[in-house]
Design goal:
The chain contains 10 helices and 10 strands. It is of the alpha/beta class.
Length: 340
Amino acid sequence: MIFPSTVAGSLPKPSWLAEPNKLWPQWRLQGDELAAAKLDATLLAIKWQEDAGLDIICDGEMSRQHFVHGFLEFVDGIDFAHKVEMGIRADRYKAMVPVVRGELELKGRVHQTEARFARAHTRHKLKITMPGPMTISDTIADAHYGDKIKMAMAFADLLNQEARALEKDGVDVIQFDEPAFNVFMSEVAGWGIEALHRAIDGLKCTTAVHICYGYGIKANIDWKNSLGEEWRQYEDIFPALAKSRIGQVSVECINSHVPLKLLSLLEGKDVLVGVIDVATDKVETSQQVEQVIAEVMKFVRKDKIVVCTNCGMAPMRRDVAEAKLKALAQGVALARKKFG
């Protein structure tokens, strides 16, 4: 099958689970009721994706308040009680973040519950996402290691521990989200990919890294507007990623100013092509999706293309997200008919 379809990761949480249309929503429930509701929402996310016609299903990150902190909550050595304000993504925006106070260790399994639940409720291939080590180290304050790289490597080891367990749970694709790769470009080839390699060490399942220009929130949109007519950040990191052991690279394509010819720098990798814009509520047409795929085919072999969203959809209105998933699958159907 050509052009397998999937999502970058997060989907909007139902309003009965958490505050809608927010990147850092508050949960509506507590305790056992919250735990049960998270799994109900996971089942709903699977249903949305299957009904839309997607091929590789994600849990929608329904069990996590935030894509980074959903992992950090399961790590010992982190102080959530005394958060500090910190500029993240090179001070693009401020956030209240927890602080590393001691040696980092997993308290136990992180995503076992939702991964096993999702695996039991879909026959499709299953993808689980986790934050990448560079992005984690840019989203937490350090009062212990005194060295950003050393701390990132410690997180990479924990991510690897969970990734190996997820593979045993039956997960087919494990993706690491690294928006920081698009900010600290000079560090990616130096230590960013080394940390990523530690995170995927020993895995036999498909591995992916998601790099993008961020959620559709104001701080990211303002930043994008400052980048000029042509976005060439990927040019600095794609050659190093092409040489890496990571299997897939997820890239923002539709409505971005990324020259698609840069995708040729990823030769040998599967490219998760973003055909759905998460920074607008305007729903793409199937023809628009097919056109993006056609343009990407000029630079990426069709058997190397996986069709995806630009980024996570967590802050998006649920009805808009559902419509966009259907447009994604319909566009893929058109592309298969035309190019298959």
